[in-house]
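Work Package 3 (structural annotation) set out to generate three-dimensional models for the target panel prioritized at the project kickoff. During this period the team completed the workflow that converts sequence records into discrete structure tokens, so that structures can be stored uniformly alongside our sequence database. As a representative example, we reproduce one entry of 255 residues exactly as it appears in the project archive.
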Amino acid sequence: MNVKGVLLDLDGVLYTGEDPVPGAPEAIRYLKEQGYITRFVSNSTRKSRVAIEARLRGLGFDIRNDEIFTPSVAAIHFIGVTGLKRCHLLTTGDLHSEFEAAGLYHQDTGADWVIIGDAGDNFNYESMNKAFRLVLQGAGIIALETDRYWMGSDGLMLSAGPFVRGIEYATGKTAALVGKPSPGFFGMALRDMGLTPGDAVMIGDDVVTDTGGAMKAGMQGILVKTGKFSQEALAGADPGPTRVIGSIAEIDTIL
């Protein structure tokens, strides 16, 4: 492949559950030593970039905070452009810290935006009904991601997508998607890399969100058979990935 930059998903590509994919830290080291510009484009909406960086370093990865792009970064930019800054966060973990650092604070009344990420156990009737009512009162919906599921330490886990769709169905409104596979999300990372889509390849474990979204944005796509990879999803993919490899550890065989 003739590319200058590599975008990589995190969960399912570099690690699964609490463990790094075998050979993944060495693969990232190889990419950097070979001079590829790297960015890590994750749909993770449970942790801030600071927390993600700390976790990656704990797993043996040499990855900086400024190399990581998440939907919260894209959402903050999106909100800044609109000028409407009152937010209701349906999220979990320390994600609120990124919004607060940008001057965007959670509120339960008069919100301009209901922001939905993977809220985990914070998804319940009360929280969903609160979001539903705020949207009916005029708030827009921002979906940090619409993934259906992800691979946890004990098996597949529901992600934010089913809950976003529920709010959309109940309110009749459509969410603004700021994470993968949004072309704007990929474009934000590419601009930071100083590259065009034709200069880059995306590596992921999701044939729709990762490789499919990237290829529709003009990049090449490499699908790995770790994480939530499924043969059934690959067979029905449109577009199909440019290449399929066993894991990120094999990246030196094609780049």
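The first strand starts at residue 5 and ends at 8.
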